[in-house]
C-alpha cells in the first residue's frame, strides 16, 4: 500500500510564505497566525496518516507472533485437536518440574538473565519462550552448575558442544561458566539444530537428546509410516518434516520410535520437549502472580493440597 499524498498543500515552502507576510503590513499578522496554525495541523495530519500506513499489521502476522511464543503449539502442532491429551501431558510435567528441589533457584537464575536471553533469542529469530524454558529446565539453580555428565553453565553445555560453538573449555578457562557466553553458545547450538531438523519442537528435543537421536527417530518414523528411507541427518530430514508437517509429539507418540529408540534411552529423554512447555508456562505464571503468591501455590502443589489446574489459574 502506498502512502497517501495531499495535493491541496501549498506548492511553495510555507515558512517562506509566513516570513514574507511578517515583513509586510501588520494587518497581515492575523492571517499569518491562521496560516501557521493551518500548516502545522495539516503537517501533523499527514505525518499521522503516513505513520498509520507505513507498517500495516496483518492478521496472519499477529497469529504468527502468538504462535512463536506458544511453546505447546510448537511441540504438539498448531492444529492439534486432542486438548485433553495435551493438557494431561503438560500438567504431568508441570507437577514434575515444579516439585524439584532446584525449582525456585532455577527460576531466579532465568529471571536474572531474562533480558539477555530474550535479546539473544530475538537476534537469532528463536522463539523467546523456548529459549527461556530451556534455560529454566537446564540450569540446576546455578549459573555455574556442573552436572555429573560434565555439562556446565546455565545452558548446560557439554565440553565438545561448547568448543563447537567457539568457546574455550580447558583446565585454565571454562567459558561455559560465563552466563552471557553460555546464553550465546546455547542458543546458537539450538538454532543450528533447528536448521538441520526444520521444526522448533524437534529442535527443543534435540537440545537434550542430540540431533543424531532426533534424526534417527525421524528416520524410524518415515520408514514405519510412509515406507521411506531417509539419508543422513541433514537437508533430507528437514524437508521430510516440513513436507509432512510432523511435530515432535507425533514422533514421540509413534510405537516404532518408542520401541526402537526412546524406550532404550537412559533417562526421560522423550519427556524433554514437554518439560520445556511446562517451564515456559511456569515462568510466565510466576511473572503474572508475583513471587509470594506463586510460592504459596507451589507449596500447596508440592503437598498435594491443590490440583495442577488450580495451581495454574491466573
Automatic annotation (TrEMBL):
Signal peptide: none annotated. InterPro entries: Lysozyme-like_dom_sf, Transglycosylase_SLT_dom_1. Residues 118-220 form the Transglycosylase SLT domain. It comes from the Bacteria. This is Transglycosylase SLT domain-containing protein. It comes from Candidatus Doudnabacteria bacterium RIFCSPHIGHO2_02_FULL_46_11.
Amino acid at each position: 500500500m502506498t502512502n497517501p499524498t495531499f495535493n491541496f498543500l501549498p506548492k511553495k515552502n510555507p515558512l517562506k510564505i509566513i516570513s514574507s507576510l511578517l515583513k509586510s503590513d501588520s494587518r497581515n499578522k492575523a492571517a499569518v497566525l491562521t496560516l501557521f496554525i493551518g500548516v502545522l495541523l495539516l503537517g501533523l495530519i499527514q505525518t499521522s496518516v503516513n505513520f498509520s500506513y507505513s507498517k500495516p499489521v496483518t492478521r496472519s502476522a499477529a497469529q504468527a507472533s502468538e504462535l512463536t511464543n506458544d511453546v505447546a503449539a510448537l511441540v504438539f502442532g498448531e492444529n492439534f485437536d486432542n486438548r485433553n491429551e495435551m493438557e494431561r501431558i503438560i500438567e504431568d510435567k508441570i507437577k514434575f518440574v515444579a516439585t524439584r528441589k532446584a525449582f525456585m533457584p532455577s527460576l531466579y537464575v532465568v529471571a536474572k538473565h531474562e533480558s539477555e536471553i530474550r535479546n539473544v533469542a530475538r537476534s537469532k529469530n528463536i522463539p523467546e519462550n523456548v529459549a527461556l524454558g530451556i534455560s529454566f529446565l537446564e540450569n540446576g539453580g546455578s549459573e555455574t552448575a556442573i552436572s555429573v555428565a560434565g555439562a556446565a553453565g546455565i545452558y548446560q553445555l557439554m565440553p565438545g558442544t561448547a568448543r563447537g560453538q567457539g568457546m574455550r573449555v580447558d583446565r585454565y578457562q571454562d567459558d561455559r561458566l560465563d552466563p552471557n557466553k553460555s546464553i550465546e553458545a546455547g542458543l546458537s547450538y539450538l538454532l543450528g539444530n533447528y536448521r538441520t531438523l526444520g521444526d522448533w519442537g524437534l529442535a527443543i528435543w534435540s537440545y537434550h537428546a542430540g540431533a543424531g537421536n532426533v534424526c534417527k527417530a525421524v528416520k524410524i518414523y518415515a520408514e514405519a509410516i510412509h515406507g521411506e528411507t531417509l539419508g543422513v541427518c541433514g537437508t533430507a530430514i528437514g524437508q521430510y518434516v516440513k513436507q509432512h508437517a510432523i511435530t515432535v509429539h507425533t514422533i514421540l507418540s509413534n510405537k516404532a520410535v518408542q520401541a526402537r529408540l526412546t524406550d532404550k534411552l537412559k533417562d526421560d529423554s522423550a519427556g524433554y520437549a514437554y518439560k520445556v512447555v511446562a517451564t515456559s508456562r511456569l515462568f510466565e505464571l510466576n511473572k503474572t502472580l508475583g513471587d509470594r503468591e506463586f510460592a504459596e501455590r507451589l507449596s500447596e502443589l508440592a503437598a498435594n493440597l491443590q490440583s495442577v489446574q488450580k495451581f495454574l489459574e491466573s
